Amino acid sequence: MSSAAVLLDRSATMLPKRWRDHFELHATRTVLDVDGRQVSGPELDHLSGASASGLRSLGVGPGDRVLWQADANLSAIAAAIGILRMGAVLVPAATVQSDLERQTIIDDVDPAAIVAGGSSRALRTNAVSVDPAALGEGSQGVGTLDVTSPDDLALIVYTSGTTGQPKGVMHTHQSLAAQVDALTVAWGWSIDDRLLSALPLFHVHGLVVALFASLAVGSTLILESTFEPERFVTRASDARASMTFCVPTMLHRLAGGTRLDVLAGLRVIVSGSSALSVALSDLIAERTGMRVLERYGMTETLLSVSNPLEGERRPGTVGFALPGVVLDVPAYGSEAELRVSGPSTFSGYWNRPAATNEVLSDGWVATGDIVRVDADGYLVVCGRSKELIISGGLNVYPTEIEEVLCRMSGVADAAVVGRPSDEWGEVAVAYVILDSGAADLDAMKEDLAGLLSPYKRPREIIIVDELPRNALGKLQRHLL
Ligand code: MLC
Ligand code: AMP
Q1: What is the C-alpha to C-alpha distance for residues 461 and 444, in angstroms, rounded to an integer?
Q2: Does residue 275's CB lie within 6 angstroms of at least one atom of ligand 2?
């Protein structure tokens, strides 16, 4: 028998093609349920195809960046899927962003189009703006879709770096596809699963791990556009959810209600984006008979470490490397920064080679998280070398808030630190030195509202006479 070369069409394993295959397969089944609105495969195929063709008619082509306001409604989701299916690059913008934050991203990423609902804001840009609901209207012919190559850029997600400057984390189609493969294997995710999620779509947790992966596995995503604990448990039971992905703040609120036991009907509850306390994990285990599966990730690496589905899910730990991921961890008994390498690591920060080189070298991502290895190899996240506050699963960079505070009139200096909170993990607190005179804290808070997303605004502003700085003038936040 002659040996035959097997030519694998790698674009067939990229997410757009996998999505389309499931859309065709699930002619009658629900692939998406947004706030109770059931969407079948063919409907999402049609809506996302029409969005892609609408963008084409606006002059958007493969490789162009499209800023997308991450609303959790059907037309916005169809637009996001359409952007990727036509080979353009999806750049999610948080719904809660201030104009200053959005303008900074527009200036950096220079989008060809902006897809945003509601009243459009007066932003400085050459990009064409379009409402997702209007995008597919009257579009003529869909054209070629779903032929993305593994190395094509798919996604740029903005995250504020230690300098306070937002940086665009780039992921290729290959990176997203590999993440789906790893999670499918690790969590036994199948076409019969029904995933309940109320995670926002402007971060990789809600967007890639919940939405993109569910559509690629062919399971059903039950999406809640806001997180209301009572409604969430009702949906878990009425919609026969089999899995849910949460951040610890959500689990904390569910545990504060009376119907946590409803979640006992799920096959797995996954938690991540910030540390889940052992106490909360134990409480949920007592009331549901189920141990939450905690996993670890980062926008730059996507999810890389997870507790096992089968075997012990150990509270206080994040488990083991996901399939395909290699971890550089300290020797047993010591602590050091975790480095991650694998098929889902980012390909750099958009237009920032120097910042990229600081974090990514030879395929290894320096996470800024300090870890140790527990007995039997379970990984424990025990600290951070980066100055970062994680509040409700969202990152707040002290330097970014301090810069905004220091630009406000009357403020001479500022320092922002995280204060521990059972509900939020941490909340941001600002210490401020005033130029002179009395402070109008209310006016200050009002000004901040126009400059920062709500979750970044300090919960408390404390006026002080001095801030701890070392001999070189560097702020010593840990002393506050
Ligand atoms: C909302 N607020 C927050 C906040 N979320 N403040 C601090 N931290 C947060 N995370 C503000 C609101 O704007 C409001 O301000 C006040 O707090 C009270 O709001 P709320 O109504 O109680 O909050 P809610 O809207 O219910 O939001 C809470 C939440 C949300 C937990 C549902 O924060 C959330 O969806 N978090 C998930 C974030 C996430 O997906 N992270 C993944 C990142 S990816 P005001 O001023 O109006 O009173 C990643 C990688 C990985 O990290 O490993 O996954
Ligand atoms: P982000 O940049 O928003 O992707 O946030 C990534 C950071 O979230 C990581 O570097 C960790 O500090 C933190 N994180 C994610 N998951 C966990 C977890 N399970 N336990 C502790 N920290 C986590």
Answers
A1: 9
A2: yes
